Amino acid sequence: MTKKLCGTNYPTSICFIVVNEFCERFSYYGMKAVLTLYFLTYLHWDKDLSTAVYHAFSSLCYFTPILGALIADSWLGKFKTIVYLSIVYVIGHVVKSVGAIPTVGNPDVHIALSMVGLILIAFGTGGIKPCVAAFGGDQFDEENVSERQKFFSIFYMSINAGSLLSTVITPILRGDVQCFGGDCYALAFGVPAALMVVALVVFIAGSSLYKRNPPQGNILLEVCNCIGFAIKNRWQRRRYEPQRKHWLDWAEEKYSKRLIQEIKMVLRVLVLYIPLPMFWALFDQQGSRWTLQATRMNMAFGDSFTIKPDQMQMLNALMILLFVPIFDLIIYPLVGLCRINITPLRKMAAGMVFAALAFGAATLVEVNVVKTVVDPAPAGNCLLQVFNLAGGDVSLQIPGSNPFPEPIKYLQDPPKYEMLPLKAPSKMLKIEVTLNGATSECQHIFNQQNSYSLIVFSETTGVQCKLVGDYIKKNEDGNPLLRFLNTLPEAINLTVGDVTFHVPSGDMSPNKTVERREYAEVSCSLESKECSNVNLGLLDFGGSYTVILMEEFGKVGARKMEDVKANNVHIAWQIPQYVLITTGEVMFSITGLEFSYSQAPANMKSVLQAGWLLTVAFGNVIVLIVAEGAGLEQWKEFLLFAGLLLGVFIIFSIMAYFYTYVDPDELDKIYAGDAGKEEDDHDDTKKKTKDIQLNKTGKSTRL
């Protein structure tokens, strides 16, 4: 007898299943939240490769549920499948965490461990995906239908609660905890690994309470065999037999008419699924392209609170928890009062429109975000800016071009990089610098597609020039970059937050990532004398700064130059696109699951579930192809996705218009009647045969 929770009809075993699902979803979404930034900042991949691998992993996670369903239904049963694949899942997390430890091997080892870990995680999470919810439903007796429905609501809430908490916590573990001299990805992956261990232990702890149904054979496999037989039989016999009404009718020699009719119903729904991957191609970019967009935005809310770019994904889970009851209790009833027939397919079509609008909003944000981005120089050109430390205004002349027609003021922050034509991969250029009527020359080699700062300063011999290479890309984790130019007669050491700089005299330090904040007092030290604290002011998100150290009134002075402008679009501008995409998800995803369930015969619901998950997989494949193949600017790529989804919306709407809703339960009545009719026909045939036989023997004349 199944043990019940005190005073209810709920089995005690579902507590273990719900907690297991919460921990598993925490581990999955927590790991996935920081994955794109891990590729960028730890493995040092570019944005397109990072996006492609992210979506390849997501796609694999939604292909493997078919494998999990086959194993559970045909071989091990749901309980053993969940346990064994959870072990694979845990191993994947551990391997992934070890790959994030810098002291373990070289970069190639880190990549290998990361890829092996992700593959194991994909097989683990995908394999148990079709089993856990169904296993929870198995715990209820047939008479407890309402309790089972409430369980699935609780189950869905546990998924979103795990997702919400993990997308808040793991970015904090990544960015606020420093280990091995940088962001602590090992911890950010290790905590989800620990939660997956907890999920496995909790699930096994309830093993004595579970109601376990033995494997019943996989209906998905039977469907595939039936379709395969129909195609084969039609091909072999098409020449000497008349055509049948439907190509699946060619399977009648081996399979029952009921099974064939059920497959026809399922195929009609699967045809409707063909356009659906495009929605998921947009939806799943929250963890890739939208996170990358967030790294180039201002993430400060006041002086005391900042959000991390990978934390913005938690808005989706949070708003799902808010929007589902709002839509069910308020919006849908209000629309119904307006006498608008809101069918499931119309809801799904509207969800596509909202997702397309979300990418329209993302396009507008991106157009403004890129205004602070410095575009690299094309082939045959380079970029140049000038810092004037010469004590007065200077004029520059470069043969063959005139990028600086106006005098450059002393200690002026360069307004922008200027294009310097080279017309060759590399070229030596003579630069004439005029200060107070006196002209000096300096020569430097410039390489195409590079960016440079020309430092102009005075010495007793005249005006001198120093050429340094610049890093114009915005920092991939959103934090500012900082470097120092030391014009002092001796080396200097500085400590900016947790980062130290040693800058020899007359030299430039390399760019280093520092935390975004106000630096009113930066400690410094010189070999020969005391060094008072240096005021750097605010080092803001996305900015790249050069600080010139010089002697002023007997003290060390600092002049801050902004090479790459700080992010000036606030991250709050991403909220509208998250609101729109979540609205689309509520109307599309939840409705789609309900539609699939209602339109499938009882024993075919797992087949349609597999088909639904495959639409998510193929959606990620679309992003993978576009990210690696299109080569578009980001705002143009967002606009392309929005346009494609609107086109798919039109196609889907036409298909939905011609779709006829069915009640799968009617099949039972139809085939019950057919079975009775077949039995009556069978009895009549037997009676006629007997009469004929009697007639032949002369004992009866009735035909």
Automatic annotation (TrEMBL):
Residues 683-693 have a biased composition (Basic and acidic residues). It is a multi-pass membrane protein. The keyword Transport applies. Its main location: membrane. Residues 694-703 have a biased composition (Polar residues). Keywords: Membrane, Peptide transport, Protein transport, Symport, Transmembrane, Transmembrane helix, Transport. Residues 675-703 are annotated as: Disordered. The chain crosses the membrane at residues 26-45, 51-71, 83-105, 111-132, 153-173, 185-206, 265-283, 314-335, 347-365, 607-626, 638-659. GO terms for biological process: protein transport; response to yeast. It holds the Pfam family PTR2. This is Solute carrier family 15 member 2. It comes from Dicentrarchus labrax (European seabass). The gene is slc15a2.
